[in-house]
Design brief:
The complex is a heterodimer of chains A (112) and B (114). Chain A has no helices and 11 strands. Chain A is mostly beta strands and 112 residues long. In chain A, the strands form 2 sheets. In chain A, strands 2, 4, 5, 6, 9, 10 and 11 form a 7-stranded mixed sheet that branches. In chain A, strands 1-3-8-7 form a 4-stranded antiparallel sheet, with no helix packed on it.
Chain lengths: 112, 114
Amino acid sequence: DVVMTQTPPSLSVAIGQSVSISCKSSQSLVASDKNTYLNWLLQSPGRSPKRLIYQVSKLDSGVPDRFSGSGSEKDFTLKISRVEAEDLGVYYCLQGTHLPYTFGAGTKLELK
Amino acid sequence: EVQLVESGGGLVQPGRSLKLSCVASGFTFNNYWMTWIRQAPGKGLEWVASITNTGGSTYYPDSVKGRFTISRDNAKSTLHLQMNSLRSEDTATYYCTRGRFVYWGQGTLVTVSS
């Protein structure tokens, strides 16, 4: 199984600050169709998860461009510029290239 | 508007069975793979099962293989998860998701306890 190592486990930030979350996979996430199925999800408190980014860097509809994703092969990063209160919650990376699909352990973004 | 509404959760004894359902609306159900994902209380997310758009192929992690069965009724736009031989570690909120995880339901809580 692909192990997704996500760091840090938590982040304490001030509104307006920028943050980055790392996700490293134990094997390449490049699929046979040449796409890389690395997703970033946000679970706000008491809510279902919501996908923010797919295929490493593509933003889902309605996601502010303060969010950006980058990386390749086995090393990926989610960056949030100018954090807002609505961004707080737990972020997960999810690989959809190899079965079984696997998640990172999550990064809890909290207010400082 | 895409909607996924799960149901069927509840309290069940270890070793017993439970069947979850997810009714989909707002999109052409038979065009999409569907997936169940679960989250134990206070824990992270775990992939449970996926099914192709026709229902011809299904996929499971080892943790549930042989005990859980994912199925779909495309005529009724409904996804199911039959869970047998339930264990305490199956206690979780179960989410139904569409395609590559872009839409999620509100979840249904399954508690396995005597």
